Fold each of these.
Amino acid sequence: MTGYQLKGSFPLIFERGAPGRRGYRLPPLDVPEQPIEALIPDRHQRTNPPALPEVSEPEAVRHFVGLSRRNYGVDVGFYPLGSCTMKYNPKINEEVAALPGFARLHPYQPEETVQGALELMYNLERYLCEIAGLSRATLQPAAGAHGELLGLMIMRAYHESRGEGHTRREVLVPDSAHGTNPASAAMCGYRVVEVQSNARGGVDVAALRALVGPKTAGLMLTNPNTLGLFEEDILEIARLVHDAGGLLYYDGANANAILGICRPGDMGFDIVHFNLHKTFSTPHGGGGPGSGPIAVREELVPFLPVPTVERDGDRYYLDFDRPQSVGRIKGFYGNFGMMVRAYAYIRTMGAAGLKAASEQAVINANYLMKRLAPLFDVAVDRYCKHEFVLSGRRYKRLGVRTLDIAKRLLDYGIHAPTVYFPLIVEEALMIEPTETETKETLDEFARVMEQIVREIEEDPDLVRNAPHETPVRRLDEARAARQPDLCFCAPASSTVGEVNAGGGGRTDG
Amino acid sequence: MYPEDLRYSQQHEWVRREGNRVRVGITDYAQQELGDVVFVDLPQEGTTLQSGEAFAAVESVKAVSDIYAPVSGRVVEVNQDLADRPELVNQDPYGAGWIAVLEMENPAELDELLDAEQYRELLER
């Protein structure tokens, strides 16, 4: 196959072209030619030519356009990926981020030439603090889990400053938490202690009471949690943790449900994390890049990473003189382009707009939950916030698993929801429609789910063998993990085979 | 699918008594729920374990799950075959898919585990 059809495989760009083919021609040299040996020492010269594709311009364009037609994103269709807030990213964000005054900055420019960028960072920090209900923030973390790690480093620095660093070695994490929570805690050197959920899907306060104590460094909590439920006992939970001398960490993965409605700082959280790429409409998935700011209560401000952005009258500057800081956690100042997009989003929405977005996200989720409730078991029968969890357990007896339903959705041009998470729900389907979807889209999704359920009852193999319409059929996930094939090995007939074979052979023939 | 000669834990491990030792694995139910196992994090021989302590982990395409020691004891043997063939846990959970052998500290702890009948009841609940 040599074309770029939508289904089936097509060659890699390394398998196309011909030796010597180029998509460009350089003009003749207008300076005297220098021998390369005179410019670059022997030991830095390569002995083999680089393994680059040799293609014409149209070949290169068709290749990448061919690939791009297979992309699926929120600009293509509905993307109800629970706990990941795949909301639409308004295009004005891109327009603003592309302004040359932002896009063409260099991180080594003198401060007086980047005052606008510093002002934006300064103001964005204030906005996030206002939303969190806390004192100061850092915009540096490059992703959500990076922010989690920083939050825990601040927690550790706080306990060390009080002489309790070596005794407070435990971080409590609910059994419904994102996997990154225990992973970040372990990465920061903490012992992870799991807290059970109760029948209403919240933290079991009695279980928590038995677990907190002089060893507790803190509790990591997502609110609303990964079942899409608000922690009804949050004030009691905060009191228990604080009375034991611990801190409360807020995982901001689900902050899209609460903007302008309630503030984590008022609930008792000491360290609050946001994902700009979830809540504040910056690109998500496909490499982002992400951005995971951390806001903290007044007592924790000295531990924030350097540099902070400060203001002196009309002048903004970077402050590195912070002796109790945990240090730097990112090259330069974080993913600045994401800050510009999030700032544009907050400014275009305004305070009332952010609140309306959260309200709409919650209404959309509750509407869709009611529409789907006849088809699945609802994990916990309560009003949800911005997302909800269903169980596909009733279809197991027909030999159809949640994974099969997720794959079948792809045939209808819909991205699958999160599946098999949270772990405490059997055959879980976690659905988050977000505020940016219309009622028509939600109804269409519900109709597709009804159709899939009919298929399960009438022709389960159709669902078990899905997807049928995608570029590739069902992939063998287990084999991909057990025998990963990580090396490209050009076929013998390829024009670039010899050059490219250096990467090593396939492991599985 | 739940052999009568085995004992079972609430966390879906099985144990087979071999004198003063026990062989440990995960049940057929556990392997079905996990789905295709792609990696088993095996314990070190010689590790001493308290009953209920996590000592191994099974990673499937869905999730990573801890495996808990059903009884207290010392790890005297681990199933090195699982390093290359983790799928044995799915294919033969009570045979070639065993995970480790423990030298028991207190064989009386076996009485606290479930028998096949009780384990079946646990699953039906």
Note: The interface with chain A takes residues 33, 35-39, 59, 61-64, 86-87 of chain B (CB under 8 Å).
Amino acid sequence: MSALSFAELCERVHARWPAVEAKRSDNGQPFLLVPATELVALVQWLRSDRELRFDALSDLTGYDLMKYPATPPSDAIAVVYVLFSYVQKHKLMLRVLAPRAACVVPSVSFLWPAALYFEREVWDLLGVHFDGHPTLLRIMTPQDWVGHPLRKDYIYPSEYHGVPHLREGQHFEHVPQREGDAVKAAPTAPAAPAKGAPPA
Amino acid sequence: MTIEATTPSGERMILNMGPHHPATHGVLRIVVESDGEVVANCTPDHGYLHRSIEKIGECVEWQMFVPYTDRIDYVCAMNANLAYCVGVEQLLRSDPGTAVQVPFRAECIRVLVAELNRISSHMIAVGAMAMDVGAVTPFLHSIAQREMVNDIFEKLCGQRLTYNYITVGGVAYDLTPGAPDEIASFLNTFEKEMVRFNKLITTNTIFRDRCASVAVVTSDEAIAWGLVGPNLRGSGVDWDLRRDEPYGIYGQLAVRVPFGERFAGRHGAVGDCYDRYIVRLLEVQESVRLCREVLKLLPPPAPKATDQTGGFQADVKKQLARPPKGEMYSRTEAPRGEMGYFIVSDGTKVPYRVRCRTGSFSAAGIFHHVMKGIFLADVVAVIGSFDVVVPEIDR
């Protein structure tokens, strides 16, 4: 009955799931990279095994790897699971990469009901579809919202049901506009003459 | 949101609570399907207070995100500041080149303000819960105590609600010379007031019977549903991050952790509304004790702000301009439970991803589970006992 280190946890997981890779983030945080197809069987075992007993899903979140300077570059959505055991007092981070084209990850809400809300949030903000979730509705934004705001290629809407988000002449900086947006571009100021340039 | 009126007999009634209901502590909408006086089904509807704080986090610099953490939970903004700053500091520490050492005096001040804010936050929680079930007077007593904490904070940083006080590397301003004495005298009066408060409501038989055995959450359920903080401890789980995963100087303090023990007597059950209420009151007592302990540890101020002992702010400009690339999950104990920050940095002065995991979000997640089968009149007592703060759910 004692907390296991990440290496010990890895050893046990590897013995049964050779496809699961132990990795470290760029600043040395250890995590397990799990193929989406093996996620459900793995977490079921992690939760029920007597030495591991991960009885709590501390957090479930994700982020878009599109603009992250990783090698090799990836455009997948990383779904991050933080597991914790109140019995054994150890924790473990899992990661599943959901490719942008088919962004589907199996739901773990039947094991930890805490995931019911977390998965709705990740679906809403990052657009990861959790297969097997009973009510995968948006939770933060309205049900008819377009797009998933925390994706790095999210295009800002200029209005919602006729209510403009910007005052006339204002525009979002550095982000592409949707086609057909009625918002006028800001009037461009005449270019100031370069310093030291001879007067015209 | 689609709501289906279900039963074939057609005897159920759909009752819409909120979004502007006085007992929902913010703009929270709950659609209750009732069978006579009993709740048959309940569907919370969130998002009315969504301000896309996590998206804003990807657009502002590291230090500039601190004021937004105030808005995540404005009832305990100091703890929200602290959670984010501890997370960023842990990220910086993951690379020896950017490690930050917070001065000892700053660590003491952080614990002091975090515990004072925990007192004021729990005062809102217990007072509002009493008000939700019909006792208005205790709320006035508890909010009077909170005002005194707000006065202390106002002298400290100029703000009464959203402080922007704790920064990465320390705190924004040093304590004023008279502040330790003021805090000590507040703690003394507060303890006396608490005796009166407890006589008024806590030991009140009507209030106790009203909350006993209502919305019982067993410890297994609480863990599986991801409850944290007082809600988890109310279900009898002995777990507090301040003691079990200490951050800052909590490791040097002796934190005693109260948990639910069927305080309502033979009519109650471990994990009922009354247990969650009492756990908060016991935590307040513990916070008072911790504040006194920290006041003894507080070193005298040093002339230089960055002094390792008596300073209040380490210089972190260089580190925050080039933080290490990578990610960090850190968690701290806020009044509403574990506040976890998952921070991803791509090595630039703007965060790549800031994710805030809050206690109210998981507490709201269990609503539709615990509310099945309780009386309609108990719905507000349940919302009050879980102490949800809506901006924390919607963010």
Note: DSSP finds 16 helices and eight strands in chain B.
